[in-house]
Amino acid sequence: MEFRTEVKIDRPAWRIEPCERILFVGSCFADSIGRRFREEGFPAVANPYGTMYNPASVMHTVERYLQETADVAAEKPDICFITLGTNHIYILKETGEIVDNCCKRPQCLFEERELTVEECADYLKKTVAMLVERNPTIHIVLTVSPIRYRKYGYHESRISKAVLLLATDVLQKTFGIRHSALDVAISYFPAYEILEDELRDYRFYSPDMIHPSEQAVEFIWERLTESYFSDHARRYLDEWKPIKEAMGHRPFNAEGEEYRLFVRKTKEKIAAFSQKYPNFALPAEGRHFLEDR
């Protein structure tokens, strides 16, 4: 007997390999998944200029990031996750420009507007074009954030998500079967549907009843690794797990010889792991582990 509806995930023709460079741009859900990749040693960058919610601001972030890292080969992303949160934009009345952050200025200075499906798709197409120009072999994953926007009203929030879902569908149909002008395939990962349809319970939300809980993010991460990670990448995660757990170990006696031996062996394992995976990016807690001892 089945007690939940399992969301079917279309597997892409490619797979995520160990320690690939990944750029995450979009809503705070992009921050959550990007942080999860960093914890696993991937050289991931998430929202370098702050959280972005709409397709126009996502395009602005990608454009700025690619410009500022143009001469840094190590910053060329192999994969880009774009997580859309809303189709609402804010326009500074004085200049007519779409702003990415109102910087706590008075609301009267801005006009709020909703992007159409066509406008959302157009901003996304421009974003894809910039990414492909930087790296012709890049893989792009579109997602829609499962986070609802209470300030719009829940009905309006669903309408906003519907616009984004339709826009991602336009992109998939445009690029899903190799476009003549841009040789790139775009896939869609159903994070929104997993939380809304598969988990479908407030116990999978944080106390604000809007953001997904850590347990929900972990479940979505597991679904992502199942469908997008190569066998090699999953073996990489299995190898990394005991080292990561060792770094988080809290001893009863930090000054004892037994713990000093444990630390030394863990450092040796980190060094060997880094040598085996040259692009491995030691997470912040790992750097603290090495520095403190």
Can you walk through the features of this model?
- The structure is a single chain.
- The protein is of the alpha/beta class and 293 residues long.
- Helices cover 46% and strands 12% of the residues.
- It has nine helices and eight strands.
- The strands form two sheets. Strands 2-1-3-7-8 form a five-stranded parallel β-sheet, with helices on both faces.
- The protein is globular.
Write the layout of secondary structure elements.
Blueprint (H helix, E strand, L loop, with lengths): L21 E5 L1 H12 L4 E3 L8 H14 L10 E6 L3 E5 L4 E3 L10 E5 L2 H18 L4 E6 L9 H22 L10 E3 L2 H9 L14 H15 L2 H17 L9 H20 L7 H8 L2
Parallel strand pairs: 1-2, 1-3, 3-7, 7-8
Antiparallel strand pairs: 4-5, 4-6
Helix pairs in contact: 2-3, 3-4, 7-8
Write the element-wise H/E pattern from the N-terminal end onward: EHEHEEEEHEHEHHHHH
Q: Major sheet, described briefly?
A: 5 strands, parallel
Structural class, please?
alpha/beta
Give the rounded overall mean pLDDT: 91
| Portion in helices | 40-55%
Radius of gyration equals 21 Å
Strand content: 5-15%
- Helical run tally: 9
Measured between the Cα atoms of the first and last residue, the distance is 52 Å
Number of strands: 8
Give start-end ranges of low-pLDDT stretches: none
Shape: globular
Strands ordered across the widest β-sheet: 2-1-3-7-8
Summarize the structure.
The protein is of the alpha/beta class and 293 residues long.
Tag the structure with descriptive keywords:
single chain, 293 residues, alpha/beta, 12% strand, globular
